[in-house]
Amino acid sequence: MVSDGRLVLAVCVVAAAGGLVAGDHKIMTDVTLGFGQALEHCREESGLTEDKMEEFFHIWHQEFKFVDRELGCALHCMSKYFNLITDANKLHHENTDKFIRSFPNGEVLASKLVSLIHECEKQFEEVEDHCMRTLRIGECIRDSCLQRSLAPTMEMLLAEFIMQSET
């Protein structure tokens, strides 16, 4: 039989772990929306149509297909906009870490996300086309975040987007 003290401790640990996951989703929502602020800036440069821009909101869904080169070009442009990649088109670890930490509680996920992004980047080093490489890396990041339950939910993204547009 478990003592009351251990039971309370176990319940607290489980509740805290659940809070971390919910907190991670909130952080990822903030990072996603923050990163997305460059989308309009990159729309023309990447050749992204209005329809494709709307699809961008579904990027975290498992069913979303990373097939359009224009999406890769937009993601590449957005990464450059925030100085998250070097002139050699490699992940700028320090800038990416700072970018993630710039969001409330971003320090909780910064090193984990930088490592995850770097691992995805290494998988596609041989892809020469910057847009297609960024597209493959983006898909890898999405899939890795989904596997780790880090991806924001559509409901959270929409709620935050609406709140931001009202201010």
UniProtKB/TrEMBL annotation:
GO molecular function, one term: odorant binding
Key words of the record: Disulfide bond, Signal, Transport
Protein name per the record: General odorant binding protein 1
InterPro entries hit by this protein: Odorant/phero-bd_Lep, PBP/GOBP, PBP_GOBP_sf
UniProt signal peptide: 1-23
Disulfide bonds: C42-C77, C73-C131, C120-C140
Family assignment from sequence similarity: Belongs to the PBP/GOBP family.
